[in-house]
Amino acid sequence: MTFPAPPGDQRSGGQRPGGQGSATQEPSGEEQTTPEAPTPETPSQEQTTPETPGQDQAAPETPNQEQAGQEQAGQEQTSQEQTSQEPAGQEHADQAPWGPPPPGPTTSHWSPYPVPAPSAPDAMGIAALVLGIVGVSLGLAIILFWMSWIPALLAVIFGSIGLSRAGRAPGANKGMALTGVILGAAGLLIPVAAGVFAVAAVKAEVDDRRSRDAAVKADEAAEREKKEREEKARHLSFGEAYTFGNGLKVTVAKPKPYAPDDFVLGHAKGNKAIEVTITVVNTGKDRLPIASGLPSVNDADGASTELVIDGSGRQKVLDGYVLPGKEAVGKYAFSLPPDAADRVEVEFTPDAKQWQDSYWSGPN
Q1: What is the dihedral of CA 245, 343, 306, 266, to 10 degrees?
Q2: How many helices and strands in the chain, by DSSP H and E?
Q3: DSSP-H helix ranges across the chain
Q4: Residues 364, 346: contact at Cβ < 8 Å?
Q5: Contact by Cβ (8 Å): 274, 324
Q6: What is d(CA 26, CA 32) in angstroms, rounded to the nearest whole number?
Q7: How close are the terminal C-alpha atoms of the chain, in Å?
Q8: Where are the domains of the chain?
Q9: What is the structure's pLDDT at 313?
Q10: Number of CB atoms found within 10 A of residue 88's CB
């Protein structure tokens, strides 16, 4: 029976490490045979006789088995001594220097460098940065800009603390703290500028509205003054002329007494009849129509008087067109009550649809 050498104990030439061991090198190709143990013979009657107490009794033992056990124990002891004597980190003889490391745990020759423990981040710098961003965001909002000064002020305070601790406190972030201070300052300036701009805009709007109101009031006042001037200009005395917008110049002469004939309408007995003469001159370059109808005559009490119609043919109604530079004359008779005949007012317009009446008045 063949006993192979244990792994790791073979060396070149089949030499056992340390020079120990009694195993003889066997030639290649031969098989070592263990001699068979002799068969014990059947003991005879003489051999079965018990021996005297104290005599050594040795169990029969196979010589080859005992030799193989001693050889295996010697090889294990030699392997343990070689492992204890081999220096740490020594490479195997058959391993290339550039090859991969052998399997199993390896021992490093150098102790690891000390790694500093990570420091906690600077809370002041982070808080200043976040509050600065919030302050600037609120400052840019149209409605919430007035609230931005609170986080902006806190950002400046926390950023200043972070800058003061940047050189001596571990984990202090100078960049975050400085950015927080800058954003906080911007967050403080933005609401101030927005407030100034809002005040200026409101003031400009108020001033503009006031100026518009003043302009409207001035226009209204000018319009009233114009109307008053026109109204005043349309109130004239007898014998004065008024030129209408179309270029017709109208003059009403002072009324004269009028004596109707026997066949008369609109004149009561005891009343006073007057004759009103109206002269119209065309001052323009085109012929102009006269569509006034009849003038109105009021007595001293403001009551309207009646038109007198008789058969004398002395009355003439204004109608038709007036040529440029020409004039037209109309004559009308009116009857006034005797108690209100001392003052007369005549209303007349050449076109009632386009122009307002003008007034001529005076004593009768």
Answers
A1: -140
A2: 4, 14
A3: 63-85, 123-140, 149-164, 174-233
A4: no
A5: no
A6: 8
A7: 177
A8: 123-205, 236-363
A9: 85
A10: 8
Q: Closest by alpha carbon to 179, among 165, 193, 192, 160?
A: 160
Q: How far apart are CA 156 and CA 151, in angstroms?
A: 9
Task: Give me 174's structure tokens.
Answer: 């100078």
Query: C-alpha distances in angstroms, 79 versus 12, 95, 109, 224?
Result: 16, 20, 24, 132
Q: What is the pLDDT of residues 294-352, one digit of tens each?
A: 899 998 888 889 899 988 888 898 888 999 999 999 999 999 988 887 889 999 999 88
For 192, residues 6+ apart whose C-beta sits below 8 A from its C-beta are none
Which is it for strands 320-322 and 264-265: parallel, antiparallel or unpaired?
unpaired
Cα separation, 239 vs 317, whole angstroms? 19
CATH of 236-363, one of 3.30.1250.10, 1.20.120.80, 2.120.10.80, 2.60.40.1240: 2.60.40.1240
Classify residue 116 by its DSSP letter. P
The SS3 call for residue 46 is: coil
Give tens-digit pLDDT for 87-114: 444 444 444 555 555 665 555 555 555 5
203: alpha, beta or left, given left = phi > 0 and alpha = psi -120 to 50? Answer: alpha
Q: What is the H or E stretch that residue 278 is in? A: strand 272-282
Buried residues in 138-156 as b, exposed as e (16+ CB within 10 A): bbeeeeebeebbebbbbbb
Rounded CA-CA distance 163/114 in Å is 29
Residue 236, SS3? strand
Task: Tell me the whole-structure pTM to 2 decimals.
Answer: 0.45
**Nearest residue to 336 (alpha-carbon basis) of 328, 326, 327, 346:** 346
pLDDT tens, position by position, 312-321 = 888 898 888 9
Residues β-bridged to residue 334: 274, 307
Written as six digits, the tokens of 49 are: 């006789």
Separation CA 208–CA 117 (nearest Å): 68
> How many residues are given for the chain?
364
